[in-house]
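Need tokens for this chain, all 213 residues.
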Amino acid sequence: MVTLPRYRYGARFYDTVSGERLLYRHGRAAAIRLLALQPGARVLVVGCGTGLDLPLLTAAVGARGEVVGIDASAAMLAQARRKVVRAGWRNVRLVDGDAATLPGVHGTFDAVLFTYSLSVIHEWRRAWQAALGRLAPSGRVAVVDTDLPTGLATPLRPLARLALWAGKVDRNRKVWTTVLDGLTDTRYHRLARGHIHVAVGTSTGPAARQEAR
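Here are the structure tokens for all 213 residues:
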């Protein structure tokens, strides 16, 4: 079992204090819409946290599909498991493990989703390559992450900096560019005046896996 101390005590309050309903849900919804998931699809969520993606994903893939989530925080996964039990999702499997190696994750997937996770994963390049290695041919990848807002929202930067600091976000990575630079058939949305970035693309096979070096 993997434990991340910074989430141990805050996991039960995460959904309430994270700004999910007010702001960040829009990024999740945009990414899942752009993935264009079909009923029966198999999806891997890397850094699934408390399972905020699960309602949208289970609706998209249907009863014949499967959603596998992995996270390195046992406390966050405990919250996700409560959601699964309450909703009665029989096609959701949650794994406690390291995103860089994906232990306990088997088979290939039609899509991989990183929502607000790739910028906080310590070995993020290894996690990216590991996820691409699990994709079926022409599989789709979505990355949703954050940066400081611009334009008319520039006065809100102090609040955004606080949110990024609280989430241990490394904004210098600009992780969505990994999709835009390394995959094909890309789609990119910039939301909340540049605070949220959504990038989705199609894997081109082994060559794409070298882009995160």
